[in-house]
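Subject: design request, 367 residues
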């Protein structure tokens, strides 16, 4: 038996970190990635395509997305099994209920594991989230397969041992443990929810197949499985993403004018493609104006450049300034003498005040 698994595509996600045009382009890329996944399934002549949930965003999907999914899966000459997750939960208004699916598509609709026979002696157990939160574990409540042969599971859930290592904001939706998989008689669980890919002995998280944000690690892919007669699986990860997303840290140490910031960013992104987020950090000279808008056009070869400010300091010589017989000097002397400020607060007050006195109106967040 040969299967392809993917999960967490998140069609129609808003991409709040991007502007309107880039966000729309990123949503188009997610559709193109699904096309690559279905092309992979066809080319590999697999027996079924599996989705472990969060195929789309329940609060954002449109009739256009519904028709796109219906047509994309209808073109496949193989079965498709969909297990709704917490973002695409199965409810009265869900896309899953609105689409007139082709006969090859099976949507699991119960909040408990129910069986489908993939082949003689091989059963796939699937379940659906019926609400966006507070779904109990599908392997709880005394569940066992109660049958022989090979038994596989498809659902959206949180392996509790990994929960604290996963990306922030991941709640324990449908929690389970690796031990529960074996106890219930399941040979392997095909999963969604964690965006960081993971291959364990008895379960697999493919990770989101196309980048959704910056800082994602691991080999995101669709996974081609070969299931042996004894229930063991072999995995082959295949890259299907159409997008490239990169993070680069740019040091501003020693910068004396804004043109040098452009030069450093341009050098850092040379040779990259796709979307690049650059984080500017370091200590600059007092006279430097910092405006992220000044980086417009610095990398026309990219799909987008997303700049942000990290920890940026200003190299003021406070001792020298304190000797001035000026308003600036008096300000520095007063702040340095203040007893109610710790060292970090004192530095922030000094830099903020001095830049205000110098007439600076840039975007610098003082550290």
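Subject: RE: design request

Done. Sequence follows.
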């Amino acid at each position: 038996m040969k299967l392809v698994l993917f999960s967490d595509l998140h069609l129609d996600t808003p991409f709040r970190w991007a502007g309107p045009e880039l966000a729309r382009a990123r949503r188009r890329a997610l559709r193109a990635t699904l096309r690559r996944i279905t092309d992979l399934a066809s080319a590999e002549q697999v027996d079924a395509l599996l989705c472990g949930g969060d195929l789309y965003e329940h609060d954002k999907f449109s009739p256009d997305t519904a028709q796109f999914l219906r047509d994309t899966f209808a073109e496949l000459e193989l079965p498709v099994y969909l297990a709704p997750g917490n973002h695409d939960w199965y409810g009265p208004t869900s896309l899953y209920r609105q689409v007139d699916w082709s006969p090859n598509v099976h949507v699991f609709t119960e909040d408990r594991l129910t069986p489908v026979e993939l082949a003689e002696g091989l059963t796939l157990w699937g379940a659906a989230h019926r609400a966006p939160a507070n779904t109990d574990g599908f392997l709880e409540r005394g569940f066992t397969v109660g049958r022989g042969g090979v038994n596989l599971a498809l659902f959206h859930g949180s392996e509790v041992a990994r929960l604290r290592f996963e990306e922030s904001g991941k709640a324990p939706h449908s929690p389970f443990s690796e031990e529960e998989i074996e106890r219930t008689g399941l040979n392997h669980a095909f999963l969604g929810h964690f965006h960081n890919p993971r291959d364990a002995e008895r379960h697999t998280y493919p990770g989101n197949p196309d980048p959704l944000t910056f800082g994602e690690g691991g080999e995101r892919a669709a996974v081609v499985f070969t299931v042996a007669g004894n229930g063991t699986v072999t995995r082959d990860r295949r890259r299907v993403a159409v997008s490239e997303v990169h993070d680069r840290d740019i040091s501003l140490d020693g910068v004396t004018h804004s043109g040098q910031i452009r030069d450093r960013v341009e050098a850092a992104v040379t040779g990259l493609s796709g979307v690049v987020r650059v984080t500017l950090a370091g200590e600059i000279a007092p006279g430097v104006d910092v405006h992220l808008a000044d980086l417009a056009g610095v990398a026309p070869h990219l799909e987008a450049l997303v700049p942000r400010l990290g920890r940026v300091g200003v190299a003021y010589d406070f001792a020298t300034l304190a000797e001035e017989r000026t308003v600036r000097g008096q300000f520095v002397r007063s702040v340095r003498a203040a007893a109610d400020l710790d060292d970090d607060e004192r530095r922030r007050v000094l830099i903020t005040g001095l830049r205000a006195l110098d007439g600076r109106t840039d975007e610098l967040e003082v550290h």
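The radius of gyration is 27 Å.
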